[in-house]
Amino acid sequence: MGKYNVSNRDLILFLGITFGLTVIMGIAMRLAYPTYSVDSFPLVQMNYPAIGVMAALLLNKKWRNELPKNFFKTYLFITITLIIYLLVEVFVFHQNPDIHLEIWIMLGSFSLIIAYNSDSKEKIEKFGLKFKKNVKSSIIYILLFVALYLTAIFISSILAGEVHSFIEPFKSLKKWSVLLLMPLLFAFSFISFLGEEYGWRYFLQPALQERIGKRKGVIVLGLIWGIWHLPVNMFYYSPETPLHSVINQLIICIGYSVFLGYVYMKTENIWTISMIHFINNGLGGILYGGTGTNLVFTWKSVFINLLFFSILYMPFLLAKEYRKSDIDMVEAVEYTGEEIEVTEKDIER
Fold it and tell me: CA-based diameter of the chain, in Å?
């Protein structure tokens, strides 16, 4: 991850802050539900992993002077004000904060662009935020994700005997216009998607892979990522079938963790992963009008998702990027200056 190794202290701080915020705001979400709208809680929750990373690094004296502080502090300010605004609107003024909150997210994204350009290029790159990195391969993997995403929907429509429902949206000029504008729309809301991916892919993935191996690392990451969604599963995605929703979330997060982990190791570009996350969250809604809220799952639908994600994403575990533990260990020696004995078990892991 970038140019430094994650210490145990940084890892504990990251997990404590990320899950601490999630638990606190999850309790607030439960108190608000169903009396008030909880639509804004999942949107703000997306920022917590990045907050965990940035806070942990800012508290680390070793790295404090080398950080892109303008970017980090701007992100922290935007997120803290989002949390305060959300809680005040819901519990003090008893109002739905959705519209104003989305405007603040848009303004926050623009503020981050300014902060990004005010920090030195060296600091931006060192801490994994360089935008123009492996651009060509990034575009290829974004298109690959879109192809896999649409393949799953197409197969589902065949099994349901409703192929026309898959094809119909592509006949709409309006939908094509929105699809082509997605890169621009990303610029208005990237703060949220970067929020998750900077925590999970940039920070936690390498930290876990260095400790337990590349394959096990992304699997454990998928489990952690899935469990982190618990409040959203219970009070937003599927309040009527929360157990089904949680299991379905674990399936999705493990599958995506494998694929996104692979893409991140190939591109080393966190913006690419954030864009894929953005497309995943928005493509279905643009094409088919789904909101992803108040869903009712059955064990059959959960099993179908397990089947699709196993077929489409789990095979990426066989990619050579997941077999480079020996090279990574050598790089770790170069970064830390420590002598590390590489065993046969480490290479095979």
Answer: 61
d(CA 69, CA 115): 9
**11-66 confidence digits (pLDDT tens):** 999 999 999 999 999 999 999 999 998 999 999 999 999 999 999 999 999 888 99
Give Cβ neighbours of residue 108 (< 8 Å, ≥ 6 apart). Answer: 74, 75, 78, 82, 191
Q: Between helices 69-91 and 8-32, what is the axis angle to 10°? A: 20
Q: Alpha-carbon distance 28 to 2, whole Å?
A: 35
Residue 337 binned pLDDT confidence (cut-offs 50, 70, 90): very low
Rounded Cα distance, 194 and 256, in Å: 16
* Helix residue spans in 181-336 (DSSP H): 182-197, 205-212, 214-228, 230-232, 242-267, 270-288, 299-312, 325-336
Q: Is 95 helix (H, G, I), strand (E, B) or coil?
A: coil
pLDDT in tens, 277-319: 999 999 988 988 877 899 999 999 999 999 999 999 999 999 9
Q: What is the rounded distance in angstroms from the CA atom of residue 167 to the CA atom of residue 126?
A: 44
Concatenated DSSP letters of 191-219: HHHHHHHIIIIIIIHHHHHHHH-HHHHHH
Q: Tell me if 188 sits within 8 A of 106, measured CB to CB.
A: yes
Contact in structure between 21 and 51 (CB atoms under 8 Å): yes
Distance CA 12, CA 59 (A): 12
| Rg (alpha carbons) of the chain, rounded to whole number | 20
Q: Is the dihedral of CA 282, 257, 246, 191 positive or negative?
A: negative
DSSP-derived secondary structure letter, 66: G
Contact of 31 with 89, CB cutoff 8 Å: no
